[in-house]
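Dear colleagues,

For the upcoming journal club I promised to circulate an example of a predicted protein-ligand complex. I picked one with adenosine-5'-triphosphate because it came up in last month's discussion. The inputs are reproduced below in full, followed by the predicted structure.
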Amino acid sequence: MELRGITAGYERGAPVLREVSLTVGAGEAVGLLGPSGCGKSTLARVAALLHRPYAGTVLLDGEPARGWRHRAPRAQRTSVGVVFQQPRLAADPRLTLAALIAEPLRATGRKDEAGERTAELAESVGLGGELLTRRPHEVSDGQLQRACVARALVLGPRLLICDEMTAMLDASTTAALVAVVEEYRARSGAALLAVGHDRTLLERWCDRTVEHAAVQAPTTGKDATGTDATAAATGTDAGAQVGGAPVRSGRRAPADTSAG
Ligand SMILES: Nc1ncnc2c1ncn2[C@@H]1O[C@H](COP(=O)(O)OP(=O)(O)OP(=O)(O)O)[C@@H](O)[C@H]1O
């Protein structure tokens, strides 16, 4: 996954991301660190094709993104799995945990695989039996996040984006979910972009860490195009630039990826 010169914001307002460039290589695990509000989740959503940037290009497997959200081509959309920080906002409250895990298969016409894949993934994240028949309001945050991790893996993504996946979890649930992601990556060769504030966790988990401030152009009072933010908010990929400061890498993680 490659972000090239991404400038992004909300409602045509001032950019939150300015000319961000970041590459996650095939099979690589990159941790993105930065203070609250700096734009990490925005970057994660752009990389997952869930938020359309003002300018710049997202490449998946070398192919530029050709749409955002439901307009993204299915092959690109399904090549990325996302786990968000707050499972209660991400999960449809009407679905049982089993249906939640299986939903991406049903949505992509693969419902025949739902039974087997759901059981397999539910077991891998430590869910089973009667728990799978409950709805989000009937389970704990940790149990719901386990289901959301299973759901993110159900289509076999080549890139997994974990946006503060463990922020509201205890140490043992954190360790268990990191282990599930790592087991999936070891088996599939998938890449990982893990976003968060927990330096210790991300340095342990990832091959390298990157500071948010190091992947975007410095603030100048102007946006990436040198004009005001409104003029930049074209909503197109036109004018994409390869920009941003060089990536600053952290230390490589040891083989042990357990957390907590
Ligand atoms: N839907 C939205 N509409 C308007 N502004 C938003 C929206 N989502 C985020 N923002 C703003 O964009 C900026 C970056 O937010 P973002 O959530 O990307 O930061 P973050 O680094 O992930 O923060 P945190 O670590 O606290 O989760 C913030 O100033 C935030 O208020």
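Two points we might discuss: The pocket of adenosine-5'-triphosphate is lined by residues 10, 16, 34, 36-42 (CB under 6 Å). The longest helix spans residues 171-188.

See you all on Thursday,
B. R.
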